[in-house]
Design goal:
44% of the residues lie in helices and 10% in strands. The protein has helices at 19-24, 45-50, 56-59, 63-77, 90-94, 131-144, 156-165, 173-181, 183-207, 224-230, 232-243, 260-265, 279-286, 305-318, 339-353; strands spanning 82-83, 99-102, 106-109, 149-154, 211-216, 249-253, 270-272, 291-293, 325-326. Strands 1-4-5-6-7-8-9 form a 7-stranded parallel sheet. The protein has a two-stranded antiparallel sheet with strand order 2-3. Strand 2 and strand 3 (106-109) form a beta hairpin. The longest helix is centred in the middle third of the chain and has 25 residues, at 183-207.
């Protein structure tokens, strides 16, 4: 039984009635819940101390360290949800893909996938491949109590882009060349990645994650017609695969204002919105039956407290009347962000939205 389910005749679990879970279900909340993408990590001095001398991917396989880093922002900021500390390429590494996360660069793949023969690198992911995830989530749920834990994974398109390009890209020229030029290979690649992503999410849910978020960080590079034809089927397969668990499913991308309706159509319960589209307009694009998450520009946190509060009020005003709203940034916390500004932001949102 997952942490958010409340079966008939049984008492709700600790996280079920949390503000975050209620907002995901579009139910009345005591206050607007807040969490931040990349809240567990680079902006926190305690994170740098905990990870000193430990490579990123190594840190993701140490349950005690994962638990400590995941808990740090909950302790410091008082956020309404924890997000599991990991990286979207962890399941790829776990099945044997030769890759590393290089400081200042990001994930780098030694042998990019460019041909059908290269698909042989992608075998199924099993729970034993990521047993450290199960152990870490067990440690976390014991500590978090009523605070929900969000599991996550990379969406098939973003993972495919990393695998084909061999690392970060601004043009996605190799990925798009395959998408346009060899649609059968592209479809097979994304289908395999959908299975891997779904398996990784299932491990997290079965270990105790209360919700999951799928990051399609690079989907904003696509035109809507290309997304519908070449990406949506694989994303929808991921969301269908975990639907039976009953946990809220969040779908987030960057620069995806033109794709918001399609991203909701893929099957998420909550659609994440970056800072480029006001939430009331995002709700119109997504349509009814979905909660929204977002969407303060992360760079606002470098301005004065008064400016942060003013921009936050704009977001909250735009969210008035939404079926459900989870306050977040429009992208991840930037590394040089003052942690105290995040703590103040959480308190401000809670104070301004108390019911």
């Amino acid at each position: 039984m997952s942490a958010n389910q409340s079966p008939a005749g049984q008492q709700p679990t600790a996280t079920y009635d949390s503000a975050f879970m209620k907002a995901c279900r579009r139910e009345p909340v005591p206050h607007t819940p807040v969490w931040f993408m990349r809240q567990a990590g680079r902006s926190l001095p305690e994170y740098h101390k905990a990870r000193e001398g430990i490579a990123m991917l190594d840190s993701c396989t140490r349950p005690d360290l994962v638990a400590e880093i995941t808990l740090q922002p909950v302790r410091r900021h008082g956020v309404d949800a924890a997000v599991y500390f990991s990286d979207i390429v962890v399941p790829l590494k776990a099945i044997g893909i030769d890759l590393d996360i290089k400081p200042g660069v990001g994930p780098v793949v030694e042998k990019p996938i460019r041909t059908r023969a290269d698909l042989d690198q992608l075998r199924d992911l099993t729970p034993d491949d990521v047993s450290y995830v199960t152990e870490a989530i067990g440690l976390l749920t014991a500590e978090l109590g009523p605070t929900p834990l969000i599991g996550f994974a990379g969406a098939p398109f973003t993972l495919a882009s990393y695998l084909i390009e061999g690392g970060p890209s601004r043009t996605y020229e190799n990925a798009k060349a395959i998408m346009y030029g060899d649609p059968e290979l592209w479809a097979d690649l994304l289908d395999r990645l959908a299975d891997i992503t779904a398996a990784f999410l299932k491990v997290q849910i079965e270990a105790g994650a209360s919700a999951v978020q799928v990051f399609d960080s690079w989907a904003g590079a696509l035109a809507p017609a290309d997304y519908r034809r070449s990406v949506l089927p694989a994303s929808a397969k991921v969301f269908r695969a975990v639907e039976g668990y009953g946990v809220p499913r969040i779908h987030f991308g960057v620069g995806t204002g033109e794709l918001l309706g399609l991203m909701g159509e893929a099957g998420a319960d909550v659609v994440g919105v970056d800072w480029r589209v006001p939430l009331d307009e995002a709700a119109r694009r997504v349509g009814p039956g979905k909660a929204l998450q977002g969407n303060l520009d992360p760079t606002v946190l470098f301005a004065s407290t008064e400016a942060v509060e003013a921009k936050t009020r704009e977001v909250l005003t735009s969210a008035e009347g939404l079926e459900g709203h989870i306050f977040n940034l429009g992208h991840g916390v930037m590394p040089s962000t003052d942690p105290d500004s995040l703590t103040r932001l959480v308190e401000y949102v809670h104070t301004q939205t108390v019911r």
